[in-house]
Specification:
6-stranded mixed sheet, alpha+beta, 2 domains, globular, homodimer, Ubiquitin-like (UB roll), L-amino peptidase D-ALA esterase/amidase
C-alpha cells in the first residue's frame, strides 16, 4: 500500500461529500458554531461512542440511528453539549436531525447528531432552526466544519490521505475536535471520518473500533471522559474499488489507523494549555493490554505532565506512574529513556547530564518517553500533553 | 464512648513515646529532615503500605520487620525517598535501622524506616549517620517529628485524642505528611500513629486497615500513588485498659477512624497549591463499593477541581465524572447539591441563583459536594482539594 497526504486535506477532500457552517448564535462569540456534513450518495456508516454512563441526548439518538448501519448526514454544534437535560434534550436532538433531514431530503434516521460544549444548558432551538436553514453546503466546506466544531481548541484538526491499495484508489478524510475532558475510553472528543472507499459494513465497524483503539483510546489530556464523545465514519463507495472486507482489509485498516493517529496527535498537541506533545512508548510488557495500561498511566500522570512542562528530567515520576499502572514490572529489568537519553538502566539511575537534558527538554515541542520493561513483547504508544498553569486558568474560569 | 481533642496534641501526647529531630543536611534548606520516634515500652505494631509496584527500599524493609508484629522505633527522613536505587537503597535503609537500634538499644528488627522526597537520588549516608547520632529524644518532640517529615507540605499535620471507653481511658496520637503524589490505594503519604491502649495485635491489624479505608484511601490530591506510602501504628499498652480485641473493639475503631479522618482532611487541605478542601459525599449508591468509586472519581477530577478553584458552580463536570466512575447511575433519579444548594434534581438542572452560589463558593475554604444516586444504601465520603496554577508551578519546577 502507498498513501500520500493531500495538502490542506479535510473531509470534503473525499469525492461526494459537501459541508457548510454558520454562526447560529449558540456561542456568544462571533464564531462558527453549527455545521452539516452531507454525502450526495448513500453511505454505510458506523460509530464509536463514549463509555460515560451520563450519555448526552445526541449520543443516544445517534446510537439509535446507527443501528441501521447507514447515514448520509451529520449535524453538529459547539457551545452547548445538550447533556443532562432529560426529555427536553432528546426532543431537541431529534428536531436537529429532522430539520437537517428535511433540508437535504433524506430520512431523519439517516442523520447523526453531535453537540459539544457546556453540560446542562438547553440548546437555543430558535437559533439552531435559523442556523440550519441558513447553512449552504459546498464542496470545500470541510475547513468550516472543522472550525464550527471547536470549543477550547485553538486550531482545527483535519487530514485527508489518498490511498493506493491493491483493491483500488480511495480517499479518507477526517476532522476532529477536543482539547479538554479528554481521556481514553473513549478519547472524549468528536471525530468525523469520510471515505469514498467501497467497504463491507461488518468489516467497517470492526475496522473503526481497531483504529480508535490505537489512536483516540491512547490519548489523554486530563483523565476525563465526556458524555458527548463519538467517532463517526461514513463510506460512500464512490471510489469504485474492489469491495474491501475481512479478507482484503489490511491496507484500508492501515490507512484508517494513520488518519486516526494523526488526528489523535493533533488533539494532544492542542490540549488545553498544552505547550508540548508527550509521546510514551512502552515496550517489553508481559502483554499488549499491560503495555497499553502502562503507557496510558504515564501519559496521564499530572506529575509527569507538570515535570515535562518545566523541562525537568524527573524520571522518578515516570517510574512511580508505571508502578501504579497495574502492569507487571521488575525494577532490575527496567530501562527508561527520556528524549532518547537513557536515564534509568536495569532499575538504577544512570549518570546522565541533567543540565543538558533539561535544556533539550525545554526546547522540544514533542517529548518522547520510552520505557522498556524487558519482560515480554507487549508494546503500545500513548499521546498526551504537558500540564500548564494555563490549563488551570482555562478550567477555573466561569463556564456556567 | 467519649473522646476529647488534646490541645496541641501529637504522637508524644501519648504516654511512653518520645521523639527528636535534627537538620542532618539531607535537604539543602536549613529545615528539620531526620527524626526518630521511640517507645520506652515494647509495642505491638502494624502497618499499611503503598500498592505501587515500584516500592521504595524503606517500604520493603519495614514490611519485612513488621512480620514479627512488634516495633519500638521509627526513623524517618525527608528530602530523599530512597526509591529506585536497587541494592544500594536496601543497604542504606538497613543501616538507618541498625544505627537507630544501636542508639536506643533495641533490636534492628524493631525499627521501622520511612523516607520521603525525590525518587532516584541516593541517601547522603554520612549526613544520616551524623544526624542519627545528634538526635535527642524527649517527651515533647512530636511537633519536631511532624516538621521533619514535611516535603512540599506547608504545615505539620498532628492530632491526639483522649478516649474514655468502657475498656478504660487511653490516648491516640498521630502525625502525617503528604501534599503531592496523593491518591487512594494507598493515600500516598506517611502517617505514624501511637497509642497507649492495650490492644490485641490481630484486632489492631484489621482495625488499622479499616481506619485507612475510610480516611487515607478516600483522599486524593492528584491521582498519584507514591512508592513510599505507609501508615504505622504502635501500641504500647501503658493505659492498662481491659485489652481491646474483636469482641469489644468498637470504641477503639471509632477513635482510630477519627484520628485518621482528621489527618486525611489536614492533608487534603494542605494539598500542593490547594486553597480549598473539597468534601464529596455520595449517598444512595447500589452498594458501598460503588459509592466509594463515585466519591473518589469526583474528588479526583481535574475539571471539578479546577472549577472549584475558580468558584464556578459547574455541576455538569460533577455529573460527567460520576458517569465515568463505574458506579451505576440513573440520570432521572440523580440529585446534586453544591454547598447545600440543589443544582440538579432528578437529572435536570434546577433554577438556582448561579451568581449567589459563585460568590459563596469563592468564599469557602471547604466545599461540600453531595450526590444522591437514589438507587440503594451505599454511602461514602472522599476528600481532596482544588487544582490551582500553584500546583503546576510547584510540580514543574526542577526537583532533579
Amino acid at each position: 500500500m502507498d498513501f500520500s497526504l493531500i495538502p490542506d486535506g479535510t473531509v470534503t477532500s473525499v469525492p461526494g461529500f459537501v459541508t457548510g457552517a454558520v454562526h447560529a448564535g449558540i456561542k456568544d462569540k462571533d464564531e462558527l458554531d453549527l455545521a452539516i456534513l452531507y454525502s450526495k450518495m448513500p453511505c454505510v456508516a458506523t460509530g464509536v461512542f463514549t463509555t460515560n454512563l451520563a450519555k448526552s441526548a445526541p449520543i443516544i439518538l445517534s446510537q439509535r440511528h446507527l443501528t441501521q448501519r447507514k447515514a448520509r448526514a451529520i449535524v453538529v454544534n459547539s457551545g452547548c453539549a445538550n447533556a443532562c437535560l432529560g426529555e427536553q434534550g432528546m426532543t431537541d436532538a431529534s428536531e436537529m436531525a429532522s430539520l437537517t433531514a428535511t433540508k437535504v431530503s433524506i430520512a431523519s434516521q439517516e442523520v447523526l447528531v453531535a453537540s459539544t460544549g457546556v453540560i446542562g444548558k438547553p440548546l437555543p432551538m430558535s437559533q439552531v432552526r435559523n442556523g440550519i436553514e441558513k447553512i449552504e453546503l459546498h464542496q470545500d466546506g470541510g475547513h468550516e466544519l472543522a472550525r464550527a466544531m471547536m470549543t477550547t481548541d485553538t486550531r482545527p484538526k483535519e487530514i485527508a490521505i489518498q490511498v493506493e491499495a491493491k483493491e483500488g484508489k480511495f480517499t479518507i478524510g477526517g476532522v476532529a475536535k477536543g482539547a479538554g475532558m479528554m481521556h481514553p475510553e473513549l478519547a472524549t472528543m468528536l471525530c468525523f471520518i469520510t471515505t469514498d472507499a467501497a467497504v463491507n459494513i461488518d468489516f467497517l465497524q470492526q475496522s473503526l473500533k481497531k483504529a480508535v483503539d490505537v489512536s483516540f483510546n491512547m490519548l489523554s489530556i486530563d483523565g476525563e471522559t465526556s458524555p458527548s464523545d463519538c467517532v463517526f465514519l461514513l463510506a460512500n463507495g464512490l471510489a469504485s474499488n474492489t469491495e474491501i472486507g475481512f479478507n482484503n482489509g489490511g491496507d484500508f485498516q492501515n490507512a484508517l489507523n494513520e488518519v486516526c493517529v494523526s488526528l489523535a496527535k493533533s488533539i494532544a498537541r492542542d490540549g488545553e494549555g498544552a505547550t508540548k506533545l508527550i509521546e510514551v512508548v512502552v515496550e517489553g510488557a508481559v502483554n499488549q493490554t499491560e503495555a497499553r495500561q502502562a503507557a496510558r498511566t504515564i501519559v496521564s500522570s499530572p506529575l509527569v505532565k507538570a515535570a515535562m512542562h518545566g523541562g525537568d528530567p524527573n524520571w522518578g515520576r515516570i517510574v512511580a506512574a508505571l508502578g501504579r499502572s497495574g502492569a507487571k514490572i521488575r525494577e532490575d529489568k527496567l530501562d527508561v529513556h527520556l528524549n532518547d537519553v537513557c536515564v534509568m538502566k536495569q532499575g538504577r539511575p544512570t549518570r546522565f547530564d541533567a543540565e543538558e537534558l533539561r535544556t533539550s527538554l525545554a526546547r522540544l515541542n514533542r517529548v518522547p518517553i520510552k520505557v522498556y520493561l524487558n519482560l515480554g513483547d507487549g508494546r503500545a504508544t500513548a499521546w498526551g500533553c504537558d500540564l500548564s498553569e494555563e490549563y488551570v486558568r482555562i478550567n477555573s474560569e466561569h463556564a456556567t
